[in-house]
Structure formats: structure tokens, C-alpha cells
């Protein structure tokens, strides 16, 4: 098993330091994309839309979902995340369809963009380039194109700061998100200090991300979140799959209290593998905080392991970014424990290749 305090061994597994540099650079990704996306100009007609549909997949889906859930009470219009080939029936000339694709080549996103165009919807988007940007240019639609210079890994899930900052900037510029820009900037500035204990040079005994990775090794983790952290729970499950090549799920309180707790008895082998990671925030509503405590009791009564993590941060935004960082570092350390390269996604690549061959 790889020693998580052996930096050279981890870098050898990863074939260099591109992944590590990318994870360390979350604050820079956020700052670059937030600052640049605020400069995107929108025609006046964009300020009269009645609803918003964001089309995205994978790392370009969980990022707008993080924004949606974090600012659920501050986003002034219906805001839907669309993650397949088809658009909702309500999309019309009063809808803003935002195409979200880190690579710019996502098949589902481009197809939805074309369908939105035929419905007369307003279009916008963000990507590093290629097909999505070309399509938006041809439609004379506003867009944010970024240079992912702080993500040498090239993986969208490891460069999630670009899509988070980009979506935030676009929504603020449109006047759809009602929050002070200074608050976002202040949080980004303080993020390095929030994440400093996760870095590779911090020894395991003082490193919460390394400790969590060790607790999850050879287990099936269920990440339990609620309210404003729902999107980050989804993100960490995604990163566990792609980065660590490991199975995972995320669950939401209070929804899980209405069914999941009765499904913990069988199969018995599941109980030997499962571990529930409860991400607890003092900013959850009082009702949800009570539910977290009782949910932990029920899980343990079924003889299933739990890990209780109380989040740092002085407000909801800080805690969201803190948990994003924890998830990125932890899944990278878990990939090292499994002796996997987090920068490669062979089965996703194989799938795309076969799909292309089928025409």
C-alpha cells in the first residue's frame, strides 16, 4: 500500500505533478474564471427571461448544481439542470439555455443547444473552446471561453473551479443571482488557508483528507449531505468514481429518512462494505441538524460504519468551497491507495470511442 506521506511515490503513480498542481490550484481556478466571466456582456433581452435551463454532464453538470443548491434562496428565477439529450417541454423564447461543457465537445450539450435554438430560446454558455463555443458564435450568443492554465491535468472534475467561477460570474452579470461580488472574492481569497491541511506535504495525522481516504479504502462510501451542500455531495461521488476508480453514492437528508434507513439490513455483505460519511454543517436548518444525529444512530444500529465530519468555514460559501477541496484531495489520495492514476479515464474513453464507431 502506498504511504500517503510519500510524495515521490504518489507522483510516480500519477506520472508527474499535473494532478497535484491542479488540485492545489482550486482558488486560482475560481478567481480566474469568476473575474473573467463577469466581463461577459449580455444583450438587454437576456434580462427578461422567465426561467433558466443549464445543460451539462459529469464535471460540467455537478458544478452548476453546486451553484444552484448553494444559492437556492438567492437565485431569482426557476433554474433547472438538464443532463440528457432532451429539453423540457417548457423551453421557449422566454428561456435562457446555458450550455455547460468544460471540453466544449460534450455531445448531449451540443444537441440540446441545437434543439433550444429551434425553440427560439436565448442561448449562452461556457467552455474551454471547441464545438460549444463554435456553435454559440454561429448563433451570435454570449459565452465565456476560458484558458484552463491552472488545470494541467486536463480533467474537468479536477478543474471544477473553472466551471463554478464561470457560472457564478454569468449569473451575477445577468442579475439573476442576488449576492455581493465582494463576498465571493473574499471567500476565494481565504480559501488557501481553509485548505492548507489537505495538501500533500501535511502529514497524515494532521491531514483530514488523507485520514478520510484511509477510512474509505476498500469500502463503499455513501456521502450524506443536505440543503446547500447537495451539489457538493454529487461532486464528491463523481470524483470518487473517476479519480479513485471506486464505487460511491451520495444521499440527501431529509429524503433518505423516508426510505433508505429500512434498506440497511440486507444483503448482509453490504453492511461489511458500506460506510456512511455524514458531512455536517452548523448552517443546516435546525430540523436537518436533528435528522443528521438520528440518522447516524439508525445507521450504527444496523452495524454499519459511520464517519462524522463537521465542516470548517464561517458561512455557507466557505463551507461549500471547503468541502469541494476536501473531496478533490481525498479522492486523489484514495486513488493513490488503490495505486491508480487519477488523470486517466480508460472506460469513459472506451465508451466514447465505441459510441463514435456506432455513428
TrEMBL record:
Superkingdom: Bacteria
Pfam family name, one: bact-PGI_C
Any one GO molecular-function label of the UniProt entry: carbohydrate derivative binding
Name this protein carries in UniProt: SIS domain-containing protein
PROSITE patterns in the cross-refs: SIS
Lineage: Bacteria, Candidatus Roizmaniibacteriota
Gene3D superfamilies: Glucose-6-phosphate isomerase like protein, domain 1
Family to which the UniProt record says this protein belongs: Belongs to the PGI/PMI family.
UniProt signal peptide: none
InterPro entries: Glu6P/Mann6P_isomerase_C, SIS_dom, SIS_dom_sf
GO biological process: carbohydrate derivative metabolic process; carbohydrate metabolic process
Organism from which the protein derives: Candidatus Roizmanbacteria bacterium RIFCSPHIGHO2_02_FULL_38_11
Keywords, in A-Z order: Isomerase
Domain SIS as annotated: residue spans: 42-185
Amino acid at each position: 500500500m502506498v504511504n500517503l506521506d510519500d510524495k515521490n511515490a504518489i507522483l510516480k503513480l500519477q506520472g508527474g505533478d499535473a494532478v497535484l498542481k491542479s488540485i492545489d490550484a482550486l482558488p486560482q481556478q475560481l478567481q480566474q474564471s469568476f473575474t473573467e466571466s463577469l466581463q461577459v456582456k449580455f444583450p438587454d433581452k437576456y434580462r427578461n427571461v422567465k426561467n433558466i435551463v443549464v445543460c451539462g454532464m459529469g464535471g460540467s453538470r455537478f458544478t452548476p448544481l453546486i451553484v444552484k443548491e448553494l444559492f437556492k434562496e438567492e437565485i431569482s428565477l426557476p433554474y433547472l439542470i438538464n443532463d440528457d439529450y432532451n429539453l423540457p417541454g417548457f423551453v421557449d423564447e422566454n428561456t435562457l439555455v446555458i450550455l455547460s461543457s468544460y471540453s466544449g465537445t460534450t455531445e448531449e450539450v451540443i444537441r440540446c443547444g441545437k434543439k433550444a435554438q429551434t425553440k427560439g430560446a436565448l442561448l449562452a454558455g461556457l467552455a474551454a473552446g471547441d464545438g460549444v463555443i463554435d456553435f454559440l458564435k454561429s448563433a451570435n450568443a454570449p459565452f465565456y471561453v476560458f484558458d484552463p492554465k491552472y488545470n494541467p491535468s486536463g480533467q474537468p472534475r479536477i478543474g471544477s473551479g473553472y466551471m463554478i467561477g464561470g457560472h457564478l460570474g454569468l449569473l451575477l452579470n445577468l442579475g439573476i443571482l442576488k449576492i455581493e461580488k465582494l463576498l465571493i472574492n473574499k471567500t476565494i481569497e481565504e480559501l488557501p488557508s481553509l485548505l492548507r491541511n489537505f495538501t500533500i506535504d501535511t502529514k497524515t495525522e494532521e491531514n483530514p483528507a488523507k485520514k478520510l481516504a484511509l477510512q474509505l479504502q476498500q469500502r463503499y462510501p455513501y456521502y450524506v449531505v443536505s440543503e446547500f451542500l447537495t451539489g457538493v455531495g454529487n461532486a464528491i461521488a463523481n470524483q470518487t468514481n473517476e479519480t479513485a476508480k471506486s464505487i460511491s453514492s451520495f444521499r440527501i437528508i431529509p429524503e433518505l429518512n423516508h426510505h433508505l434507513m429500512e434498506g440497511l439490513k440486507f444483503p448482509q455483505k453490504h453492511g461489511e462494505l458500506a460506510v456512511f460519511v455524514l458531512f455536517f454543517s452548523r448552517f443546516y436548518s435546525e430540523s436537518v441538524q436533528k435528522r443528521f444525529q438520528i440518522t447516524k444512530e439508525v445507521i450504527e444500529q444496523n452495524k454499519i460504519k459511520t464517519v462524522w465530519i463537521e465542516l470548517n468555514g464561517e458561512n455557507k460559501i466557505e463551507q461549500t468551497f471547503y468541502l469541494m477541496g476536501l473531496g478533490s484531495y481525498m479522492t486523489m489520495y484514495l486513488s493513490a491507495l488503490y495505486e491508480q492514476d487519477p488523470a486517466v479515464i480508460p472506460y469513459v474513453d472506451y465508451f466514447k470511442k465505441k459510441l463514435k464507431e456506432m455513428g
